[in-house]
Amino acid sequence: MNTLLRSAVGAASACVLTFSLTGCGGEDHSGVISNEIVVGLLLPERQAARYEKFDRPVIVDKVDRLTIGEGRVVYANANQDAALQARQLENMIEDEVDVLIVDAVDSKAIASSIEKAKDAGIPVVAFDRLAEGPIDAYTSFDNEEVGHVQGKALLKALGDQAGDSRIVMMNGAVTDPNAAMFKRGAHAELDGKVDIAKEYDTEEWKPENAKANMQTAITALSSDRIAGVYSANDGMAGGVIAALKSAGVTPLPPVTGQDAELDAVQRIVSGEQYMSVYKPYAPEAAAAAEMAVQLAKGMSLHTVAQTAVDSPTARDIPAVLVPVIPLTKANIKETVVSDGIFTVAEICTPKYAAACAKIGLT
């Protein structure tokens, strides 16, 4: 982990665990709480860069620091396969991990596996997506606010022409509960202010599916009638922009995104993508790790959880919701560069050097 990201992990956790960090899995014979915790980490896919580049290393580092090097993380990635993730989770139950952190591929499908973890006495932290079943804690971003931020940004880009504008909405996958929250927040901003001419739920969040949906919208509406595109994340924004460019659309209409992925930041620099939503991954991942360690030790979450949320199957789940930041050309240096997510050199490759210089990103 680079120094800046490591610093972000330390700063991400305002609360410091106050209990003694010595011993072995629960309590040893002397009654001292143990650090020898095994955390099972299940992430949903590798398509979004965040999981392998940010979330996993932050969680591993935070667990290591909270247990003074005695705890460890066992890891599995489901590659967007819900059935595979269920098997991975159940394998971890059989291996008797002390606690699970689960970012569900399918929030409903994972519920029965989480029930098995509960039956085995293994607490579960739902990470990033609010999984169903008897989960013990949840950490994510304020996902409805993400949609509000995206919707407001698109309206700002459209300006005085918003009332006469036809837009396309490219929402996320119906299997992801966050997608519904993004959509709800965006609709709260856009409904009645623009003409939502076409709207899609994008299977598996895949850029190629978003591209195909956008091609269908272009055929139905004609390219010169699309004033803007609400895209729920950066990967899909890439697919949307590819479809618009293939159709010869110029200038490109404003397109939103989310996740502040490197390709998207470069598209923002060059003017192909209007904005993204920067979600500081370190605080979210660090909170998940801290809650997992406390649950494994049988400790209360009141020093970590800021609020409580309800899922379709559980109420009053202790939660940490991390604020989000709209990312545009104007604040790249103050956000993703300052936080060590990307360096200027990573963003401003020769292809983007002139555009970077134009906005003072040097």
Principal-axes shape call: globular
Major sheet: 7 strands, mixed
Number of alpha- plus pi-helical segments: 13
Calculate the mean pLDDT score and round it. Answer: 91
Number of strands: 12
What does this structure look like?
With 362 residues, this protein is α/β, with parallel strands linked by helices. It contains 13 helices and twelve strands. It has helices spanning 3-12, 50-66, 82-94, 111-119, 143-158, 177-190, 207-221, 234-246, 262-270, 281-296, 333-337, 344-347, 353-358, and strands at 38-43, 72-77, 99-102, 124-127, 137-141, 166-171, 195-201, 228-231, 276-278, 307-309, 317-322, 325-327. A seven-stranded mixed beta sheet has the order 2-1-3-4-5-11-10, with helices on both faces. Helix 2 (50-66) links the parallel strand 1 and strand 2 (72-77). Helix 5 (143-158) runs parallel beside helix 6 and helix 7 (207-221) crosses helix 8. It is globular.
